[in-house]
Amino acid sequence: MIKKKNLSLEDLKAWENFTNQPSDIYDKEKVSQKIISRNERLRYDLHGFTLADANKKVKEIILSGASSEYKELLLITGKGLHSNTNEDTYVSKDLSKLKYSVPEFIKNNEELNKYVISISEASLKDGGSGAILIKLKFIK
Q1: Per-10-residue mean pLDDT for the chain, 140 residues long?
Q2: pTM recorded for the entire structure
């Protein structure tokens, strides 16, 4: 990270305001803080996960969300713009990206299919093509 040497008063105040709101800041390393609930929707950011780790986490989130009676799950996958798989001829350009592989993983997993009503691209306000909206059903 490159540090600014001469911060303007405006930048300094903005930084102080930002760091004074610890509820707005979460540590990506702490899993419990990555899950953010909003009403009946569970939101989870998958940025930085490998495909294998993302699939494990998605399974955990769907099972947890369904048992907690969440109606929707919003998975932030990113658009795959920074993926370096385009240079590897042995790797799928699409399925190596979370936005494509996560829905395929869910569709092909019988255990998860019991809890999923639908999988779609999120609305623009929720992340558009960089996010997946999963509607869940509750099964006792």
Answers
A1: 71 76 52 50 86 91 88 83 50 62 92 92 86 85
A2: 0.62
